[in-house]
């Protein structure tokens, strides 16, 4: 009732206003739509028409905008609901992938991809499923489809390159990493991956050039220090290759520089000595090997010195070096081992026994030490003592135990156990040579047939 009363009141006010306006504007107005078409109406009527047309246009535009807005909200709601459903399917597929259920993971991820063929993450997850199932080519095909959707996608490119690597297709992996670097010249991850492939292939110069670029864009800190160390290692490999190709001078120069930068890098010292020796500079080689052992206490330097002196038929000089070093450090057990072996080679059995026995009494226990002691005892004609040492070297006990090995993890044991103490596998301990014995066949010699018993 109130609404009707308001409408009636509004109509009355409009009518009064209209009559008033008409009364004070009694003239007519002519509107030309074309040169031949026109309309003549009272001014008040013309005004009302204009107002009505304006109201219609305004309300029409408003209703159209509201309709478009509502339609977009409805459509957006449907798309959002669809996206949420696809996301839920995708997450379930990834969950199955992580739990190892490849069959269900494939089905769910394929379903999500069918509903939205533009989802890159579905291609990546399906590629992972293919790789887990041992089908790298399928994974590569899926990743290539993803690249068609997103040609510069870093995640897809890295996944594709890694898949190529794991499949042994290094050249194709290198091509992908180079494509990555074409798009981002400072991508350190791609450079490191490409460098590692070059290292595996033995392309040390190419790896070195990449490492220089990596170091150039690396910030200071522990990671930069690691990159610097890798740079030295690659420089060393290049120098070693130069030495193999007969370029002793270049190898010597690089190795000397590497030693200045890292005095504890053993390979550079060894190769520097080798380069001197290859160049006929044995005195310099001896100095490098001796300084290397004094500084780092590595057995490789003693082995190199022994080879050099024995080849030169001058074991006395090597013996003098060993003895002089023993005076500097009488507790150098590594030197005692090499000195004892050298004395044994030179038939200085008593001195050899002294040094080798010092090692054994110090708690050192390994097969080759016992073999040296056994040989020393044999040369002394102490056969029983030599046999004992041989038994220790061969780990032979008095009961001649054959021992057991775990078929699952390879751990060795003297006693059998129902369960491997290392990998916890049941019923896995067997004789180490069981398979060899099982696969062998006893060759029987042909039996002699007594005369007269052969069938005709």
From TrEMBL:
Pfam family, one: TPR_8
Domain LapB rubredoxin metal binding: 404-430
Parts of the chain that traverse the membrane: 5-24, 44-71
Residue windows of the TPR repeats: 86-119, 120-153, 154-187
Keywords: Membrane, Metal-binding, Repeat, TPR repeat, Transmembrane, Transmembrane helix
Signal peptide extent: none
Annotated protein name in UniProt: Uncharacterized conserved protein HemY, contains two TPR repeats
Organism: Desulfuromusa kysingii
């Amino acid at each position: 009732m109130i609404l009707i009363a308001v409408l009636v009141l509004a109509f009355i006010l409009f009518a009064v206003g209209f009559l008033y306006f008409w009364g004070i504007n009694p003239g007519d107005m002519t509107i030309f739509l074309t040169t031949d078409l026109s309309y003549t109406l009272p001014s008040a009527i013309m005004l009302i028409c204009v107002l009505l047309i304006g109201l219609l246009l305004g309300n029409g535009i408003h209703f159209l905008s509201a309709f478009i807005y509502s339609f977009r909200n409805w459509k957006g709601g449907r798309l959002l609901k669809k996206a949420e459903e696809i996301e839920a399917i995708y997450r379930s597929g990834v969950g199955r992938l992580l739990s190892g259920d490849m069959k269900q993971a494939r089905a769910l991820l394929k379903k999500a991809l069918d509903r939205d063929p533009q989802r890159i993450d579905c291609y990546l997850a399906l590629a992972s499923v293919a790789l887990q199932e041992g089908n790298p080519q399928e994974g590569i095909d899926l990743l290539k489809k993803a690249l068609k959707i997103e040609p510069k996608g870093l995640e897809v490119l890295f996944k594709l390159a890694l898949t190529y690597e794991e499949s042994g297709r290094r050249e194709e992996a290198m091509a992908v990493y180079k494509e990555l670097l074409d798009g981002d010249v400072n991508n350190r991850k791609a450079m490191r991956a490409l460098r590692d492939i070059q290292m595996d292939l033995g392309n040390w110069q190419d790896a070195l050039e990449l490492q220089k670029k990596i170091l150039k864009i690396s910030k200071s800190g522990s990671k930069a220090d690691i990159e610097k160390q890798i740079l030295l290692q690659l420089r060393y490999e290049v120098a070693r290759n130069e030495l193999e190709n007969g370029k002793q001078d270049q190898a010597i120069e690089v190795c000397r520089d590497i030693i200045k930068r890292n005095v504890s890098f053993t390979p550079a010292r060894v190769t520097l000595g080798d380069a001197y020796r290859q160049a006929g500079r044995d005195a310099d080689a001896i100095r490098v090997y001796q300084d290397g052992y004094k500084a780092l206490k590595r057995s490789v330097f003693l082995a190199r010195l022994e080879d050099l002196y024995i080849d030169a038929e001058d074991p006395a000089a090597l013996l003098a070096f060993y003895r002089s070093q023993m005076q500097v450090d009488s507790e150098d057990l590594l030197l005692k081992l090499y000195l004892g072996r050298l004395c044994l080679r030179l038939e200085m059995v008593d001195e050899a026994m002294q040094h080798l026995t010092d090692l054994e009494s110090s708690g050192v226990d390994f097969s080759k030490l016992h073999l040296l002691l056994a040989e020393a005892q044999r040369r002394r004609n102490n056969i029983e003592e030599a046999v004992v040492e041989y038994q220790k070297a061969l780990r032979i006990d008095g009961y001649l135990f054959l021992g057991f090995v775990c078929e699952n993890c390879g751990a060795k044991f003297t006693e059998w156990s129902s369960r491997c103490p290392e990998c916890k596998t049941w019923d896995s301990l067997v004789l180490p040579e069981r398979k060899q014995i099982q696969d062998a066949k006893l060759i029987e010699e042909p039996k002699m047939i007594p005369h007269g018993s052969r069938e005709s």
